[in-house]
Amino acid sequence: GLFLGQPLQVEPPEPVVAVAMGASLRFACRLACAGPGAAAVQWRGLDTSLGEVQSDARGSVLTVRNASLSAAGPRVCVGSCGNVTFQKTVRLVVYAFPDQLSVSPAALVPGVDREVACTAHKVMPAGPDALSFSLLLGDRELEGVQTLGSPEVEEEEPQEDEDPLFHVTERWLLPPLGTPIPPALHCQATMRLPGMELSHRQAIPEKTTALFPVLHSLTSPEPPDTTSPELPYATSPEPPDVTSPEAPHKQGSMGTCCSEIHQAVPTEGGMAPKSSPTPGPAQLPTDLWTGSVVLALLLLSFLAYRLHPPASPRLPLPQSAWAG
Fold first, then answer.
1. 49 plus 79 within the same structural domain
2. Which domain, by its residues, includes 70?
3. Which stretches does the entry tag as region Disordered (predicted)?
4. Going residue by residue through the chain (324 aa), what tens digit of pLDDT does each one get?
């Protein structure tokens, strides 16, 4: 008779076992007979490539190497003790879930981008019962997100001797996030299979616009300008008159000449001198020359006075002198 009892043991014991594409997995099946009869154990595949089988008196080991999609399906272990037969079925699921997520847009513009999309590439299985998406803010799901339709499933372009894979895209409409966008915003894709759950994340950063360097230069302190804005006046052959508006402009007058000379004299570092109450370097020799001339004239007048005193005035003669 056929029994589905406990004497037949399979490792791993789960009825459904997931294995990544390209990986290997071993199934061990053992049977302990209570009577004197020897146990007989063997693996049977149902419309699948069975794999490598090694059997001995204690049981049978099935090895699936470099798992492909064609290796998915049920495996049956059959054992017998004398006339009593036992069997146990295990189903193999082959999946593909590489860490290949992409987001669109690649970076969000605050206040502009409201719709985002997250795509998982080269996945299998692609159904919503196995693959799901979510938007996370930190470690929690973002609230207020609106899903835009069902996930879009498209087949990848297969390479030679490769199993067909898919890329799946989920789209959302974001709630207002404020400015700047929270730095912990992520897209997460999760693959859930019996006895297994895997997740991958992709950050959704805030876009840095090309205006940032310009704004940075406008807000950054400028280094001190080593050239004077009045430097063109100092190098001009005819500098403008910088006298006050009330003073009349007289071409060739001493005031205008001195003003022009004062503006044309450079100082250390190429800076044109500002207006100052003290006389400029060009005015100082003229004042000294004028003072020296005045002092010399005063000295000559004093010497002439001392050397040639004025004659005493003559008194008029008395009338008696005129009479005689």
1. yes
2. 2-95
3. 216-255
4. 444 445 889 999 999 999 999 999 999 999 888 766 678 898 987 766 778 898 887 789 999 999 999 899 999 999 988 888 899 999 999 999 999 999 998 888 877 778 999 999 999 999 999 999 999 988 899 888 999 999 999 999 877 777 899 999 999 998 877 666 667 789 999 999 999 999 999 998 877 654 433 333 333 444 444 444 444 443 444 444 444 444 444 444 444 434 443 444 444 444 444 444 444 444 456 777 787 887 888 888 877 777 766 555 454 544 444 444
Domain boundary among 63, 95, 127: 95
Number of domains in the chain: 2
**Strands, E assignment, the chain:** 2-3, 8-11, 16-20, 25-31, 39-45, 52-56, 59-64, 73-81, 84-95, 101-104, 115-123, 131-137, 140-141, 146-147, 152-155, 166-173, 185-193, 196-203
Structure tokens at 213: 């360097």
Report the CATH number at residue 80: 2.60.40.10
Do residue 79 and residue 126 come from a single domain? no
The domain boundary, picked from 203, 233, 265, lies at: 203
